[in-house]
Structures are given as structure tokens and as C-alpha cells.
Design brief:
Strand order of the largest sheet: 9-5-6-7-11-3-2-13
Distance between the termini: 85 Å
Strand content: 15-25%
CATH superfamily of the largest domain: Phosphoenolpyruvate-binding domains
Shape: globular
Bound molecules: phosphoenolpyruvate, magnesium ion
CATH topology of the largest domain: TIM Barrel
Number of strands: 36
Structural class: alpha/beta
Largest sheet: 8 strands, antiparallel
CATH architecture of the largest domain: Alpha-Beta Barrel
Length: 847
């Protein structure tokens, strides 16, 4: 037996571990020792040793002494969530340190306001090496006072494994939002310690002793990492049977995406997409506006039968694997024919959604997880169902609404395969006429089949405005609300409701007068729509002859084609990121040249502005890994990605230059905030221009512009105008950055109104700056499609309105209702208003 004395690593007051308000430490699950309530801000080494683990969040560090004692120090409680903020590591893993050497500096003020507690735990993690341990009490000074006296025992090399067999679990996806940090690592180690067998946690080629918190934390397992638990010894079967399900369920960690859960449960606010709105009025249900329009009809609950699947396989794993492969192959064929059918109906947008489903079926992880369950004797149907539902549940928990929307796609395609495996026909429910469908979730397959003559609208508990289902609903012109309050599921079939897809609400049992008002309004809207459409090909000219260009915001070729019959005069914004999403690799230069040329051909000589890739932060690309960011909207997004990873931008720039030869193409850069950024981008364009034969000729010049969507660009408009040929104001982002309100926030979204006078003043500043330098300005944010805003924007002096495709006829009609002088008068009044509501009151609307 030997003894080890740890010096106090902090100044402060010693607190017994039992009093730490966290059961993991209080119940000594991580190890035994004591806590210090610190009065200084530097953690120092309590003994000599090697840094064997430094958590990437820099809130925890472990020293291993020459004798193999693992001393772990954990600063504060729940500090893993700070992701390194407030901590400065003074060592790296592998460093040898002496007593009193600095380990981690921390900002106590920051921690005090952002974490649960500053209490810092100093523990021995491998207690099997300790016979007794005693802590001092009272105040201690770092480096000088003794803190813990530990009696150690020699390491026992004998392993229980000799007598047993090796058993491994299926592959498990880690659900914990912050990975296996101290708390879940401690729970896992304690579970593993109940068994005699040696227990290993493996991820690919890496492995850790699952009985050691330090070893587990050393693997730095992150959320969604795929791990396998291996047990070697006499009770290996029991160890795996006990540990694997608990690991898959998150080890009781709060920050865990729940195991498959009904969509009606409240999401965990830590992981879930932003909280959904709730109404205080029992007769009104709130959700997210997914597809505009008003629907008055009777509720029809669309329920899906659960498909029952046997857990155990009838046959050999080989036969089950073959069944699964065959079913996946058949599902791919079904999707192929569906696409051919949709293309024949000239509906390539819908076809593309099912092409994306085919890609989901290629996901190797999905197959691997299913196959690993089959290898354990599970039936193909059970293994497949669990694999896709687990993946879908993880996706549904992600903050990005786009990724969460893909969960619905995955369930849709997963169910398609399951239906084939179980011979469960894809049932076609008998949908009554004039109904408003309510469903937990609608799959893209369900939505594509809807008949707009019978279904007047639908509401789903899951999903969001950017899901494929919402996109399909808009293309079918069916009003839809996503993320509606779950009590919608309790409404009886036949209940009359008014669904407002424009505001994301549903009114239950409206009184007859209300229904009359809505039906009259619908009728008037339909008449107006028809009248606007009849004049869609006329220019948008004010009554005194001032012409405003009205062009389209598009995501691809299909939108471009639709814009022409609606009177579109070109494209003011091609959101080119749509060409990059839903793919495993970036589109090649040739592919891009082809698509830009195809769109230009469809526009038949009309001009087009191609915005370069605008992703990043909340819109990740699978083949462009970027570190997770605390504030994605203020991080590496838009042109900043292009400058950080220039190869993708250079390829796109070359493609645009090539497609621009002999065509009216313009190139526009998103999220420009500084003059340096636009100069760097221009430099890059010049370099690429030199490489594209013909691009240097004056007649092939592609004009360059910027999105004005960061307040700095609006404020410095005159300086920016000297650098470029045109501006297009992205009011969606300009509003969120001006008002500091997340544009997708369910509570702030409505307040983040681009009609706020602060935003209008920035628009005016932009227009004045550009015109002073002889440059033109468009607006391509959502405000340009808002009939209430059109006259004010024209009055401010905006030259071009780039609007959503269906809005083109109405925006043109709106321009024609007033003289330029009237518009200028309105703009002047709007700029002098105090609030967005006052601005909107200037232009009352019946609709
Ligand atoms: C905008 O920010 O207004 C804009 C048009 O760009 P996006 O909506 O694509 O960010
Ligand atoms: Mg934008």
C-alpha cells in the first residue's frame, strides 16, 4: 500500500462530494474525492502526472500519476454545455506536469452566469486502486495546502476475461446531444463495472475501457457517432444485454434525443427545433405557415396503421439480409417509375424529391445498422424499421429545419421498404370531398397524391415551412400549416374548420358569419387572381409611366419555366444552393454550366442573376463539413464559405462565366459585409475569368453584384456601389440582422417585419448610395412579394422587384395602381413612421 497526497488545485472552500447538487458526483459515480467552491480562476495540478485526458470543452482534465492513479478534475456543473466558452486550457494531452503547474484557466463571472454551479470536483476515477481516501475541510490555498490523502493499492493485472467468451452489441448511434461527456460516461462506467467481464466501448478502430470514465471520455464520442460495445468474459452476454439498450437510450442524459417517440410529445427544448407557438384561445390552433391560402372545410384525420413486425428472424441472417436487399431494390424501382411518371407530367420538382428518396436508400450507415441487427438474429423488417426510425428521430431533433424536414422523407422511404418487406400494401385512404386533412406527419408520397379538388388544406403536427411536404403543398396550391398544436389530432372527423396557411393558424367551429366572410374573401381573391393573370404580360408601369422590372426568385429550371406564363421578366435571384443540396458531392463545373444554360434558354433572352452558393451555419452540405457554430447566422455562411473554401466558389464562378458567354447572366454574392470581402471575391473572379476562353471579351462580360443583406453593406452603400454593377437587397436577412431577431423564430418571426421603418431606412440608404454612383438596385427578399410593400419600395426608388413566382402577376398589378408621385409620398410617410404596424396601416388591404 502506498499513499498519495493531492495538493489543493484551487483556492476556495472544500465541499463534501455528497453536497454537490448533481447525483453523478454526489453518488460518486465518476469516482471519489471532494469538491472546491473556488475563489480564484486557475486550476493547477494537485500532483505530478501526465495529462491523459483533456475534454474538448476544456472543462475537465485528468492527470495520471506515475503509479497509474487517475485524478480527474471537473470545473463547474453542466459546463460541458458551454462548449469551451469561458475556459482556456494551459496544457495539452500528453503533457507531463508538476504539482502547482497551471492546467485550465476559467472565467468565473462567465461560468457563474452560464452554468449551474462553479463547484469543481477533484476525484480519483479508478477507485479500484484506492483503499481509503480522506479530504480536508475548510478553506484551502492552491498549491500549498494538502487537499486529499489517498491510500492506494497495487494494480491487479488478472483479467476476468480468460474464462469467458466475446460478445458484441449491434451498432449503436449515440443520441446524447453533447456526446459521452462526464455524466453519461460515469453512468456507462458504473454499468460496466457491475460485470466481471472486460467491457470495451469501440468506435471504428478506437476503443476504450468502458469501466473507466477517463478512458470513455478520451474517445470523445460525439452525438450520432456509431459505437459497438464488446464484452469479454464469463458474463459477457448479460453485460451486453444490459448495457447496449441503456447506451442507445442516452444513459439517462437530459440532453438526449429521445428514443423513437410519438410526434405528439413535447420536444426537449435543448435539442429540439425552436419551440412551437401555442394558442391561448381554445378555438384557435397555431402552427407554422407552410403553404399560403385559406381553406374552409371539414376535418378528416389521416391515420396510418402501424405495421407489426416480428422481432426475431424466421430464417438465417443471410436469408434475411437478402430479403432486405431485395426490398430496397424494389423500392428503388418503384421510386424510379414514380419519377418517370412525374417527369411525363412535366413535374420535375416532384420527381426530384423522389430522386432524393432514392439517394436516402443508398445511405451505407442505414444498411450497416440494419445488417448488424440482422446478424444478431433480428428479422429484416424489425432491423430495417429500427434503423430508419432511429436515424429519422435523430434528424427530427436537429435545430436546422431543413434537416428536420428530411426526417419525414426518411420515414416515408423507410416505410416504403417496410411495406414491401411485410407485404403491407401502401393503403389508399378514402378521402372525403371538401376536407381539411389532419395528420401527425404527411409524407411527400402522401402529399404528391393529394387531389386539390377534394383536399382544401392540411395541417400536420410535425414538419416545418421548408420541408418537402410544404414545398409540394405550395406547388399544388393547397393551403397548409405545419407544426400545429397536437390537440388538432383530437378533433372529430367532420368538425368544420378554417385553415389559414398564410398565417399558420386553424380556427375550430367558426360561426356561420365568419365562414361567410372567408368564403366571400376567397371568391374575391380568386377574381383578383384571374384579373391579375389576364394582364400579367403587360409591363409593371405606374399610372404616370414609371417602369419597374418584375422578375422571379427561383430555385431551378422548373421555377424559371413557370415564371414566363406568369409575366416574369427574368430572374432576379437564382438561389443556386438548391443545386448543391440533397447531393453526396458538389455539382461539377460541367453540370453547372448545363443547368445555368438550360435556365437561360428557358428564359429566352431574359436576364438572370445567379447568386453564388449561400449555405453554411444552419444549412449544412454533407460534402462540405464545417465546424458546428454557436451562432450560425453570424458565422461562416454565404460568401464567407466561398472565401474559406475557395475551390467550390471558383468552380461555380467558372461555370457562370462559361454559361454567360453570349447570354445575359449576372453574378451576385451573398452576405457581403465588408469592402475587403467584395474585393477578395472580385479578385477571385478576375483570376477565373482569365482561365475561361472567351470570358474576357467585353460582349461576354458577366456583371457583378452583391446582396445587401447585412446592415454594414446598406450603411456603406455608396462605397460598395463603386465596387459592383448592381445591388439586390435581401430583406429577409437584412431584417433579422437589423432587428437582431432570428428570421425563423416562431415567436419573433412575426415581429421581424421588413416593413419596420429601421429596415426601410436602410433600403433608402442603399438606393441613394447606388443611384449616386449610377448603379441600379433590386429587392429580392420576401418584402418584394408583399403587395402592401410594393408602392413604398417603388417610392423609395427601387428599380427591380424580384418576387416569388406565383406573386408575379399580383406585384405587377400593384405597381399599376398608383403614380410614382403617390408612391414617393407614401415612402416619405413610411420612413417617418415609428413602427411596422404604422407603415402597414398606410396601405390597408382587404386581403
Ligand atoms: C434574403 O435574405 O432576403 C434573401 C433573398 O436571401 P435568402 O432568403 O435566400 O437568405
Ligand atoms: Mg439572405
Amino acid at each position: 500500500m502506498a499513499s498519495l497526497i493531492l495538493k489543493a488545485p484551487l483556492d476556495g472552500v472544500v465541499v463534501p462530494l455528497e453536497q454537490v447538487p448533481d447525483p453523478v458526483f454526489a453518488q460518486k459515480m465518476v469516482g471519489d474525492g471532494a469538491s472546491i467552491d473556488p475563489t480564484n480562476q486557475l486550476l493547477t495540478a494537485p500532483c505530478e502526472g501526465r495529462v491523459t485526458q483533456l475534454h474538448r470543452a476544456h472543462h475537465a482534465v485528468t492527470l495520471t500519476t506515475a503509479d497509474g492513479i487517475e485524478v480527474m478534475m471537473h470545473i463547474g456543473l453542466d459546463t460541458v454545455n458551454l462548449k469551451g466558452e469561458g475556459f482556456t486550457a494551459k496544457v495539452t494531452e500528453g503533457d507531463q506536469v508538476a504539482t502547482g503547474d497551471p492546467l485550465i484557466e476559467f472565467d468565473a463571472d462567465y461560468l457563474a452566469t452560464h452554468a449551474k454551479s462553479l463547484l469543481t470536483q477533484i476525484l480519483v476515477a479508478n477507485m479500484e486502486r484506492v483503499s481509503s481516501l480522506a479530504a480536508v475541510s475548510g478553506s484551502v490555498s492552491a498549491g500549498s495546502d494538502d487537499f486529499l490523502t489517498i491510500q492506494t493499492i497495487a494494480a491487479d493485472g488478472a483479467e476476468a476475461e480468460a474464462a469467458g467468451k466475446t460478445v458484441s452489441s449491434e451498432a449503436i448511434l449515440i443520441p446524447n446531444a453533447t456526446g459521452l461527456h462526464a455524466r453519461p460516461a460515469a453512468v456507462l462506467a458504473n454499468l460496466a463495472k457491475r460485470f466481471k467481464s472486460r467491457v470495451l466501448l469501440t468506435r471504428g478502430d478506437d476503443q476504450a475501457n468502458a469501466k473507466s470514465v477517463v478512458s470513455i471520455m478520451g474517445l470523445e464520442i460525439a452525438q450520432n457517432d456509431k459505437v459497438i460495445i464488446v464484452a469479454i468474459g464469463p458474463d459477457a452476454d448479460a453485460a451486453i444485454a444490459s448495457i447496449a439498450p441503456q447506451l442507445a437510450a442516452g444513459l439517462g442524459d437530459e440532453g438526449t434525443a429521445p428514443a423513437p417517440a410519438p410526434a405528439t410529445t413535447e420536444p426537449d427544448p435543448a435539442n429540439a427545433p425552436a419551440p412551437r407557438p401555442r394558442s391561448d384561445d381554445p378555438k384557435v390552433l397555431l402552427g407554422v405557415a407552410a403553404s399560403p391560402g385559406l381553406g374552409v372545410g371539414r376535418v378528416f384525420q389521416l391515420r396510418r396503421d402501424e405495421i407489426d413486425v416480428p422481432e426475431a428472424a424466421d430464417g438465417e441472417p443471410r436469408a434475411e439480409r437478402r430479403r432486405l436487399e431485395d426490398a430496397v431494390e424494389r423500392a428503388k424501382n418503384e421510386l424510379e417509375s414514380l419519377q418517370t411518371e412525374l417527369r411525363a407530367k412535366a413535374d420535375p420538382a416532384k420527381a426530384a424529391i423522389f430522386a432524393a428518396h432514392q439517394e436516402l436508400l443508398e445511405d451505407p450507415d442505414l444498411m450497416e445498422i440494419a445488417e448488424s441487427a440482422i446478424a444478431k438474429g433480428k428479422s429484416a423488417a424489425f432491423a430495417w424499421q429500427r434503423a430508419y426510425s432511429t436515424h429519422a428521430d435523430r434528424l427530427a431533433q436537429l435545430k436546422s429545419e431543413i434537416m428536420a424536414g428530411r426526417a419525414i422523407d426518411l420515414r416515408d422511404v423507410g416505410r416504403r421498404v417496410l411495406g414491401i418487406l411485410t407485404n403491407h400494401p401502401t393503403e389508399e385512404p378514402e378521402i372525403p370531398a371538401d376536407c381539411i386533412l389532419i395528420a401527425e406527419e404527411m409524407s411527400p408520397s402522401d402529399t404528391a397524391k393529394l387531389d386539390p379538388k377534394r383536399v382544401l388544406g392540411f395541417a400536420t403536427i410535425g414538419g416545418g415551412a421548408t420541408s418537402h411536404v410544404a414545398i409540394l403543398a405550395r406547388s399544388l396550391d393547397i393551403p397548409a400549416v405545419a407544426g400545429i398544436e397536437p390537440r388538432a389530432l383530437d378533433l372529430a372527423n367532420g368538425t368544420q374548420v378554417i385553415l389559414d396557411g398564410g398565417t399558420g393558424r386553424m380556427r375550430i367551429d367558426p360561426d356561420p358569419a365568419e365562414v361567410d366572410i372567408i368564403l366571400t374573401l376567397k371568391h374575391k381573391l380568386a377574381e383578383k387572381k384571374e384579373a391579375d393573370l389576364a394582364r400579367a404580360h403587360e409591363p409593371a408601369t405606374t399610372t404616370d409611366g414609371h417602369r419597374v422590372e418584375v422578375v422571379a426568385n427561383i430555385g431551378g429550371l422548373d421555377d424559371a419555366k413557370h415564371s414566363i406564363p406568369l409575366g416574369g421578366e427574368g430572374v432576379g435571384l437564382l438561389r443556386s444552393e438548391f443545386l448543391y443540396l440533397e447531393r453526396q458531392t458538389a455539382p461539377t463545373e460541367d453540370e453547372q454550366v448545363q443547368i445555368y444554360s438550360d435556365i437561360a434558354t428557358a428564359l429566352d433572352g431574359r436576364p438572370m442573376i445567379i447568386r453564388t452558393l449561400d449555405v453554411g451555419g444552419d444549412k449544412p452540405l454533407p460534402y462540405l463539413p464545417m465546424p458546428r457554430e454557436e451562432n450560425p447566422f453570424l458565422g461562416i455562411r454565404g460568401v464567407r464559405i466561398g472565401l474559406e473554401k475557395p475551390e467550390i466558389l471558383r468552380t461555380q464562378v467558372r461555370a457562370i462565366l462559361r454559361a454567360g458567354i453570349g447570354r445575359k447572366l449576372r453574378m451576385m454574392f451573398p452576405m457581403i459585409a465588408t469592402i475587403d470581402e467584395i474585393r477578395s471575391v472580385k479578385g477571385l473572379v478576375m483570376e477565373e475569368r482569365a482561365k475561361v476562353p472567351g470570358a474576357e471579351l467585353a460582349e461576354n462580360a458577366v456583371e457583378l453584384g452583391i446582396m445587401v443583406e447585412v446592415p454594414s453593406a446598406a450603411v456603406m452603400a455608396r462605397q460598395f456601389a463603386r465596387e459592383v454593377d448592381f445591388f439586390s437587397i435581401g430583406t429577409n436577412d437584412l431584417t433579422q440582422y437589423t432587428l437582431a431577431m432570428d428570421r425563423g423564430h416562431p415567436k419573433l418571426g412575426a415581429k421581424a417585419d421588413a416593413m419596420n421603418p429601421a429596415v426601410l431606412r436602410l433600403i433608402k440608404q442603399t438606393v441613394d448610395g447606388a443611384h449616386a454612383e449610377g448603379k441600379w438596385v433590386g429587392v429580392c427578399g420576401g418584402i418584394a412579394s408583399d403587395p402592401q410593400a410594393v408602392a413604398i419600395l417603388v417610392g423609395i426608388g427601387v428599380d427591380e422587384l424580384s418576387v416569388s413566382v406565383p406573386a408575379i402577376p399580383a406585384v405587377k398589378a400593384e405597381v399599376r395602381t398608383r403614380s410614382l408621385a403617390d408612391c414617393q409620398g407614401l415612402a416619405e410617410q413610411a420612413l417617418a413612421c415609428d413602427t411596422a404596424a404604422q407603415v402597414r396601416a398606410l396601405i390597408p388591404t382587404e386581403y
